[in-house]
């Protein structure tokens, strides 16, 4: 297996690529390329991270649109030949604050035509691979036998495993099985990402989301957890008790929040991979310096802020992130 000439592959992503149907001001549904892992992949590519998307895409019109979006972001396809299954769809509703809710159409679709052996083979063919990332719809109980063995193999191979819980309770009929599948994936992670909403869905309903996030981290072997808090910024926790929180110091004109968490995670990983001592940082055995953590978290928050200023998931480029960090750096404090 060979990949197109591009940046050396550092991150491999596995998960959904779908079309978000967004309602416009006249009530018409506008198709936009989306899906959490698809958004993450594009966001990484646009920030200059060599990225390999592992799932197949459909040969239908929407599949071609998704493939074009990845190509424009410089993302390589592990399976460049399209499949006959249709593209996944999500109908997106926005509340008065621009917060998104989703209804999914996911039976017999292209991006679910995967298995652990194929995922591992693609990763094994990328010698510069450092990170594997998944989450959201890839964590449903029905696909557990595809994703979990892959995560276990990649962890054993020494790659940094990143799992974004990004739960979608509206998608599943059996929440008990869904939570169990998500928690099984989190057991393989070196870096977990959750939102405050994810914590509630996982059963952590305390008054303090940071305390709830610490409790979730304690239930896994992961060294790190990133918690997003919407307008209140984000927190990066280490299992040894250290923590950093970042929030914007200037007002952010929010259009909608579609893809904000995906761009946050892309910014986090791009910041992590850009540090000079990235080998040590990637292993996450010995936490990096306080300065590194502040930089990585600031990079993530700036990436998310730029996303929410646009309609739909519009990931920023590395140049845009650098300019925002120069003009309006987030405030980072040690908790």
Structural commentary:
The protein has about 325 residues and is α/β, with parallel strands linked by helices. It has a single domain (about 10-335), classed as Ribokinase (UDP-N-acetylmuramoyl-L-alanine:D-glutamate ligase). The protein is built from eleven helices and 14 strands. The strands form two sheets. The chain has a ten-stranded mixed β-sheet, sandwiched between helices. Strands 3-2-6-7 form a four-stranded mixed β-sheet. The relative contact order is 0.13.
Number of helices: 11
The termini sit apart by 46 Å
Structural class: alpha/beta
Number of strands: 14
CATH topology title: UDP-N-acetylmuramoyl-L-alanine:D-glutamate ligase
Instruction: Using the alpha-carbon principal axes, give the shape.
Output: globular
Q: In the residues, how many domains can be counted?
A: 1
Can you give the mean pLDDT? 91
The CATH architecture category equals 3-Layer(aba) Sandwich
- Give me the side-by-side strand order of the main sheet: 5-4-1-8-9-10-11-12-13-14
> What percent of the residues sit in helical stretches (DSSP H or I)?
25-40%
Series of secondary-structure elements, N-terminal to C-terminal: EEEHEHEEEHEHEHEHHEEEHHHHE
Low-confidence stretches: none
Major sheet? 10 strands, mixed
Radius of gyration: 18 Å
**CATH homologous superfamily placement:** Ribokinase
What is the CATH class designation? Alpha Beta
The fraction of residues assigned to DSSP E strands is: 15-25%
